[in-house]
Design a protein that fits this description.
The protein is α+β, with helices and mostly antiparallel strands and 345 residues long. It folds into three domains: 82 residues, 3-Layer(aba) Sandwich (Rossmann fold), CATH 3.40.50; 121 residues, Arc Repressor Mutant, subunit A; 57 residues, no CATH class. The protein is built from 13 helices and seven strands. α2 packs antiparallel against α3 and α6 crosses α7.
């Protein structure tokens, strides 16, 4: 779907494409006329199950190498959607075997604007716990979706997840209780992408289907310690110390310059009947100057910030201003009426 404006083109993808190749072709249509183009992709992990089922159902052999390649391309697109720190253009060109310097992006993509960097963590221990938890669930003759497995690993006590399960005998139950949902989902999805976990669509009651999770082809290698699992998490980029020090010094210098520029200047009274402006800082200085030595002059006659004599002076000036404005308004009304009367005559 395209939404065009005079200076920019918009391409909106309502669902995730089957591969980065499809996405590249679809998004490229907005820039064919040389105009700037913004591409917005609405993504949900549930799209993966729908598209994977379409790939398998359209293949004569769901277990063939060609089908596996299409699924791997789908997973590459999933990684692209869930990546929150790598430059979008870098990810796209890497898929086609090209290198692109992220510095040349000039913050034209959402990830570069966010300023996040990748933190690579070893989650082999967590992966083993998840696989052991999955085996414990299977030993109780129960199946689990990826979401249910994730919630059980986090120690959920909700009935929709623990129903028909004896949680006290589940190995790994609550092992990820210290992680938030976002980090847990990132680990779970990475295990699927690495084929350590595998989701299989199965028919449920009343014609509905559900994606149940099982061990993937690389699960045994993880359990035996022959395979390490690493997952990249996004974190805020730490600014360079030299740059931060330079910015702080510049900020301090600007503040000092601004403070020096705030010198008070007194304007003399005008001779054309206008009132000179009153500076509150000048009045306060005068008040402090007239205060007796060793103490601050107190004004108890009128409550307020300014002394009583200054408040009285302000009232007098305000009355004069109101009288001047009233005279101007009366003159303006007289002129307008005069003009109207001349027009009628």
């Amino acid at each position: 779907m395209g939404i065009d404006k005079p200076d920019v083109r918009y391409v909106i993808h309502f669902s995730m494409p089957k591969s980065i190749t499809h996405y590249y072709q679809e998004s490229g249509r907005a820039g064919r006329d040389g105009m700037n183009a913004d591409c917005i992709l609405f993504y949900s992990y549930k799209d993966k199950g729908v598209l994977e089922a379409m790939i398998k159902n359209s293949s004569n052999n769901p277990f063939s190498a060609a089908t596996r390649r299409k699924i791997d391309q789908l997973y590459s697109c999933l990684r692209y959607c869930e990546d929150s720190f790598e430059c979008r253009r870098t990810l796209q060109l890497q898929f086609f075997g090209e290198n692109f310097d992220q510095a040349n992006c000039n913050k034209t993509c959402d990830n570069c604007r966010a300023g996040l960097v990748a933190e690579n963590r070893n989650v082999t221990k967590e992966a083993k716990e998840i696989l052991q938890l999955l085996s414990s669930i299977s030993s109780q003759r129960r199946s689990s979706t990826l979401h249910q497995l994730s919630e059980l690993w986090r120690g959920s006590k909700a009935k929709q997840h623990t129903k028909f399960l004896i949680t006290s005998t589940l190995t790994g139950y609550g092992g990820g209780s210290k992680l938030n949902k976002g980090d847990t989902d990132r680990i779970m999805h990475s295990l699927v992408f690495e084929n350590i976990l595998e989701e299989t669509s199965q028919q449920a009651g009343q014609g509905f289907s559900a994606d149940y999770v099982g061990q993937g082809t690389h699960a045994h290698a993880v359990l035996t310690g022959n395979r390490q699992v690493f997952v990249r998490f996004a974190r805020k980029q730490v600014p360079d110390k030299k740059v931060a020090t330079k910015k702080a010094a510049t900020k301090k210098k600007d503040a000092e310059t601004k403070a020096k520029g705030k010198k008070k200047t007194k304007k003399p009274a005008t001779t054309d009947g206008e009132l000179p402006p009153i500076e509150f800082d000048d009045l306060l200085e005068q008040s402090e100057a007239t205060a007796p030595t060793g103490g601050v002059k107190r004004h108890t006659s009128v409550s307020g910030v300014l002394p009583a004599e200054h408040i009285s002076a302000l009232r007098t000036r305000i009355k004069r201003l109101v009288a001047m404005w009233a005279a101007e308004v009366s003159e303006h009304i007289h002129i307008c009426c005069f003009t109207c009367n001349n027009t009628e005559n």
